[in-house]
Amino acid sequence: MQPADGLPKNIVLVGLMGCGKTTVGRKLQTMLGYPLVDTDHLIEEKARLTITDIFARRGEQAFRELESAVLNELSAPGTPRRIIATGGGIVGRRANRRLLSQLGYVVWLQAPVDVILQRTARNRDRPLLQTANPRERIEKLIIERSPLYHEIADLELETAGLETEEIACGILESARYHFTRS
Ligand SMILES: Nc1ncnc2c1ncn2[C@@H]1O[C@H](COP(=O)(O)OP(=O)(O)OP(=O)(O)O)[C@@H](O)[C@H]1O
Ligand SMILES: O=C(O)C1=C[C@@H](O)[C@@H](O)[C@H](O)C1
Ligand SMILES: [Mg+2]
To answer: Where along the chain is substrate bound (predicted)?
Structure first.
């Protein structure tokens, strides 16, 4: 049976670092009243290390293994509805993309390079951007990952110039429309 809020599945937020997954996820949590989980936070809990420390001490591959493990746990049958914010690189593995598609309504949040640079400039907890040329790194990630986000996205949303609340309302409206048709 369709729940009263018209959303039978999770909402899954994907996109590059700084596109607003955590921020928009928090807004959706407030609006819907069910929990937000963030794969980056779950990984930190599981490893008992920050993401920066996982990359520094164990390397990116170890981080990706933890990321896949956390995604598998989130995909266990019978879990209640949630908003799921994901790490920017979670789409790199084909198996992850399959799980994300099955997990719920997938929203790809987008932002131009300048906006991402501005939004990520203030903190240093994104190891992939600790490089001499973060702009070049972001441009490369956009080229590599855009087809992967596109492959699984039910909704693609440009976020620059939009308030978090507008983004969250847009997502809910589109998701409800999607589920009434399916
Ligand atoms: N629509 C928006 N307008 C203005 N600022 C925003 C918007 N969305 C996010 N921000 C700001 O950008 C910064 C990064 O946002 P956030 O942490 O939500 O990104 P993220 O996608 O979760 O990144 P990561 O993949 O690294 O976890 C935060 O300081 C947040 O307040
Ligand atoms: O884009 C990425 O590959 C990453 C994004 C962050 O959310 C973290 O998952 C981590 O810093 C790696
Ligand atoms: Mg985040």
So the answer is: 40, 64, 88, 145
Name the one residue in this structure whose structure tokens are 């930190």: 44
How many angstroms does the Cα of residue 99 sit away from the middle of ligand 1?
Answer: 24
Nearest ligand 1 atom to alpha carbon 15 = 21
Total domains, the chain: 1
Ligand 1 pocket mutation, candidates 22, 130, 142, 169, criterion most atoms within 8 A of CB: 22
Find the DSSP H helices in the chain. 21-32, 39-47, 51-58, 60-74, 94-103, 113-120, 134-152, 164-181
Residue with CA closest to ligand 1 atom 14: 18
The answer to the question of residue 91 being in a domain is yes
Q: Which domain holds residue 154?
A: 10-181
ipTM surpassing 0.90: yes
Residue 105: its H or E element? strand 104-110
Give the span between the Cα atoms of 112 and 19, in whole angstroms.
9
Residue 4 lies in a domain: no
pTM: 0.96
